[in-house]
Amino acid sequence: MKYEPVIGLEVHAQLKTNTKLFCGCPADFGGAPNDHVCAVCLGMPGVLPVLNKRALEFGIKAGLALNCEIAEDSRFDRKNYFYPDLPKGYQISQLDRPICQHGHLIINGKKIRINRAHLEEDAGKLVHAGAAGLHGSSHSNADFNRSGVPLLEIVSEPDIRSPEEARDYLTELRNILRYIGVCDGNLEEGSFRCDANVSIRPVGEEKFGTRAEIKNMNSFRSVQRAIQSEIERQTKLLESGQRVVQETRLWNEADGTTHTMRSKEDSHDYRYFPEPDLVPLAIARNWVAEIKATLPELPEERRQRYVTKHGLLQDQADILAESQVMADFYDRVLTLGADASKAAVYLINDTTGYLKDTKKEFADLAITPENLRDLIAAVTNGTITSNVVKQLLPELLASSGDVNQMIKDKGLGQISDESGLRTIVQEVLDSSPTQLEDYKKKPDKVRQYFLGAVMKATKGKANPQMINKLLDEMLPTVPIE
Questions:
Q1: What Rg value do the Cα atoms of the chain yield, rounded?
Q2: At residue 459, does pLDDT exceed 80?
Q3: pTM
Q4: How confident is the model at residue 481 (pLDDT cuts 50, 70, 90)?
Q5: Which residues of 81-111 are buried (b: 16+ CB within 10 A; e: fewer)?
Q6: Please, are residues 188 and 224 in contact by the beta-carbon 8 Å criterion?
Q7: What would the DSSP string read from start to end of 108-138?
Q8: Which of 161, 146, 149 is nearest to 4 (CA)?
Q9: H or E, element range at 316
Q10: Residue 479, pLDDT above cutoff 60
Q11: Is 265 left (phi over 0), alpha (psi -120 to 50) or beta?
Q12: Which CB contacts under 8 angstroms, 24+ apart, belong to 330-339?
């Protein structure tokens, strides 16, 4: 029997507010343990929470970017569970009246529905130390710096049908949140975390199978691998006549499998009830309209513009739009009058390769939009060859500078003097007797060798059109058979 996966994702995105959700403590990552805490986020008796309006604004902004309906009336609820890093013994969250509902994202032409996006406070963090054993001991320390940090939990409908589609959804979701400035999307610091609900069912059947929730995934690659592993595990169970148990499982990156953590809770297990210390929210429509007016051009809109207006290939548009910083840079280059296609190639091929080699971010680069415009102009007007760009662009990325002056100082201008090039071509031909004999047999294949040899001799500065003209004249005539 063939099975298909049914996947839903729950993303916790930390909102980029200066302070926590219900108190004035810094929401910054890091710091000494328990340095960013107060009586409110430590859950001391008698203290009262006060809602951070900026967190609510960011939640609404994200909901609008995700095509959600923004509630006119919303409220907070208490989610009760006992765990050492939850100081109050409950978490302030939202259950049946979230701020955002019924949204969607378009992923590779397919609509992935978003059930809801709601605000909640983060828990603290347990730091495990020591080694357990017969003569050893182990202990855990609680760091509450993260306790009370504002989160937006974004819950998709179970519309995802493959690990690759899950990864694409997460990539687009993170890009959107970063574009609108509400979340930095840093997976290493835990500001963008994902849990996956995975089940399988026979192909063609409508009823869902029993799901397992997967946690402990700290990269998009881990999410994709964990989902694939879970699909394979559940398939083996059903094919051997066993059943899938509803549970929470942890992803183990080292062995590439999921492992049982605990039985999966449902909402009634948390004994939700309305938060008595916070009044219900009445979200004014004019405020929502004001927030909507601040939304920038989102990734999908940008991709469409690059393809339809500037003639880029879809793959090129996808790569450029993935990084808002690089896309903004590209747009500034275009406003300066540079050729859209050439600018895209230099950014996508050369610049991204440089970033990978140097392990830098685009924002760290020294190059300016004017630098790239001038570089493209120098190639277009024949001042330098495209081969020289390979030498000059990395220097601009590292330290910027006046492009035309650099070309002059380094003697990188294109060689177009016919008499000088004729001498170089003749030297190449004289030093290549074997290739000349091969050329008589296979001219189309061997001709490229001579072009490359002349370019090498001139350090990439020779005019390619001039070289080809001279080769036409100076290579032996090959009889037509």
A1: 30
A2: no
A3: 0.84
A4: very low
A5: eeeebbbbebbbbbbebbbbbebbbebeeee
A6: no
A7: TTEEEEEEEEEEEE---EEEEEEE-SSS-EE
A8: 161
A9: helix 314-322
A10: no
A11: beta
A12: 332/369, 333/369, 333/372, 333/373, 334/310, 335/369, 336/369, 336/370, 336/373, 337/373, 338/372, 338/373, 338/376, 338/377, 339/376, 339/380
Amino acid, single-letter form, for residue 205: E
Distance between CA atoms of residues 317 and 308, nearest Å: 10
**pLDDT tens digits, one per residue of 88-121:** 999 999 999 999 999 999 999 999 999 999 999 9
Residues 6 or more apart whose CB falls under 8 angstroms from that of 217 comprise 194, 195, 196, 223, 226, 251
* Residue ranges per structural domain of the chain: 3-290, 297-409, 418-474
Distance CA 198, CA 217 (A): 14
In this structure, what is the dihedral angle of CA atoms 38, 43, 48, 51, given to the nearest 10 degrees? 70
- Which of 364, 371, 363 minimizes the C-alpha distance to 326? 363
- Owner of token pair 């009760």: 80
Among residues 433, 365, 437, 432, the alpha carbon closest in space to that of 396 is found at: 365
SS3 403: helix
Enter the tokens of residue 443.
Answer: 């001219």
| Average pLDDT of the residues in 375-396 | 87
CA-to-CA distance for 342 and 170, rounded, in angstroms? Answer: 30
Contact 200, 238 (CB under 8 A): yes
Torsion-angle region of residue 389: left (phi > 0), alpha (psi -120 to 50) or beta? alpha
| Residue 179 Cα distances to 170, 176, 298, 299, angstroms | 14, 5, 7, 8
CA distance 281 to 431: 83
Burial (CB count within 10 angstroms: exposed 0-12, middle 13-18, buried 19+), residue 249: buried
Distance CA 153, CA 148 (A): 14
Predicted local distance difference test score (pLDDT) of residue 464 = 73
CATH topology of domain 418-474: Arc Repressor Mutant, subunit A (1.10.10)
* pLDDT for the residue 317: 96
